[in-house]
Design a protein that fits this description.
globular; single chain; 9-stranded mixed β-sheet; Spore Coat Polysaccharide Biosynthesis Protein SpsA, Chain A; 316 residues; 2 domains
């Protein structure tokens, strides 16, 4: 009699907060996976919308974990702590997997034992119309991706399957980060491990008004993420590591533009001063910093004029 070869267990971690209207569809996309050896851990992050009642109807098919509202990083770490699988896959409660996602990714991980995780492309779709829009990323990359991840939003978390051992080794998600916690995790892993990308859409990512990652509330995200990476890996300090210097300049400029064009001039100045203290300068950074020193009425007029110029050039 031939021995039965068991597929490695994959732990699916789904954090949720007041997403009952979407969670059922997300779960159905897990139940319909062509890969069979799954455990599903749903971590309810203080929901008040009937999530517990919804999950009660799936009680025999998943593990339900509940905590006081602490944010998605804490919820994911709770799931990781309770996971038993060789691999961990993450799914946001408002996203949807294609049915062959896990099967394809586990196969790739087993063929590439030196890889820490595998990701795939995701397809945005509008919650109201179901119209499909942007594909992320447009170009998939594999290998040593640390420098690329410093400046490019390459990986969507709902598309990832990771080795549990490596996930635990790097300490999971940083619970002090309210945004960019996923990028921070990828960077911690990518500094020492290979990553593989699949040039195929395996996730549908729902776009709606509550998407946290779409907010302009980036002050606690982008640069704080880089600060933590530099503390973890001192050899990446921007004074001696050019890719990190460029990352601070690129992300710092993006933050300043967001703040400037949303009228948050004090935050724009604050971001500039942080970069200047690090001896990071560029003509644009200096220009926007100087603009915010003028009276708000003048700054608002300049901002409006710049928008008109931009619109005119974009239709040229």
């Amino acid at each position: 009699m031939s021995a039965i070869i068991m597929e490695p267990l994959v732990s699916v971690v789904i954090p949720t907060h007041n997403a009952a209207q979407y969670l059922g569809e997300a779960l159905e996309s897990v139940f319909s996976q062509s890969y069979g050896n799954l455990e599903i851990l749903v971590v309810d992050d203080g929901s008040t919308d009937g999530t517990a009642a919804l999950l009660g109807s799936f009680a025999s098919r998943l593990t339900y974990l509940s905590q006081e509202k602490s944010g998605p990083s804490k919820a994911r770490n709770t799931g990781i702590t309770n996971a038993r699988g060789e691999y961990v896959a993450f799914l946001d409660a408002d996203d949807i997997w294609l049915s062959n996602k896990i099967e394809k990714q586990v196969e790739i991980l087993q063929k590439n034992p030196d890889a820490a995780f595998v990701y795939a492309q995701s397809q945005d779709f509008d919650d109201q119309t179901d119209r499909e829009t942007t594909v992320h990323p447009e170009n998939v990359c594999s290998g040593n991706l640390f420098e690329m991840l410093l400046v490019r939003p390459l990986v969507t978390l709902s598309s990832v399957v990771m080795k549990s051992s490596i996930l635990l080794d790097v300490g999971g998600f940083d619970e002090a980060l309210a945004t960019a916690e996923d990028t921070h995790l990828y960077l911690k892993i990518a500094r020492n491990y290979k990553i593989i990308g699949i040039p195929e859409i395996l996730v549908r990512k729902r776009k709606h008004k509550k998407n946290l990652s779409d907010r302009i509330d980036v002050e606690i995200g982008s640069l704080a993420c880089l600060d933590r990476i530099v503390r973890t890996f001192p050899d990446t300090e921007p004074g001696k590591y050019l890719p990190m210097r460029n990352a601070y300049l690129i992300k710092g400029k993006a933050m300043m533009l967001d703040y400037f064009y949303s009228g948050a001039y004090a935050k724009c100045r604050m971001t500039a001063r942080k970069l200047f203290r690090m001896r990071l300068f560029s003509p644009e950074l200096i220009g926007y910093f100087v603009l915010t020193l003028f009276p708000p009425l003048i700054v608002t007029s300049v901002r409006s004029f710049n928008r008109l110029i931009y619109k005119a050039l974009s239709h040229w």
